Amino acid sequence: MACAIIERDGLVLAARRSASMSFPLKWEFPGGKIDPGESPQECLHRELLEEMGVSVGIRAALPTHTHRYPDLSVTLYPFVCAIVSGQITLHEHAAVNWLAPEKLDSLDWLEADFAVIRSYLHHRDAR
Asked: Are 29 and 14 in contact (CB under 8 A)?
């Protein structure tokens, strides 16, 4: 799964899953499943356009992370991004929130995203 850590004015975008999605009402970095023959970057661009109506520019790729839930395993391909066109329109998520990076842990995140948050904060501090 590709996921976007979207930065704007020193803040980071978190997206809240809708009540009808798996892991309802959990917060996540937006993105989605990589289709066969698709690169993680292509997936990210497609998913963000479908889910939120925005195009992003990728600033950096972070290390991949695999998380094992009781019934499935997911590998996340995180990218630090910025919106380059479009306005956020929620097609799948219930809400979005722009947070200071140090406040990211204040939300009820999907478990797989915790390692991405740690990696992002490390990357940010190293810049």
From this structure: yes
Q: Residue 112: count other Cβ atoms within 10 Å of its Cβ.
A: 22
Task: Give, for 68, the enclosing helix (H) or strand (E).
Answer: strand 65-68
Q: How far apart are CA 89 and CA 17, in angstroms?
A: 14
Q: Which fold has domain 2-126?
A: Nucleoside Triphosphate Pyrophosphohydrolase (3.90.79)
Owner of token pair 């290390």 = 63
Indicate the DSSP class of residue 109.
B
Q: Which amino acid is at 113?
A: D
Query: How high is the pLDDT of residue 103?
Result: 97
Taking Cα atoms as reference points, which of 44, 33, 23 lies closest to residue 109? 23
Residue type (1 letter), 90: L
For the chain, the structural domain boundaries read 2-126
Residue 2, both tokens:
């590709």
Burial 15-50 (b: 16+ CB within 10 A, else e): bbbeeeeeeeebbbbbbbebeeeeebeebbbbbbee
Query: Each residue of 21-51: pLDDT tens digit?
Result: 889 999 999 999 999 999 999 999 999 999 9
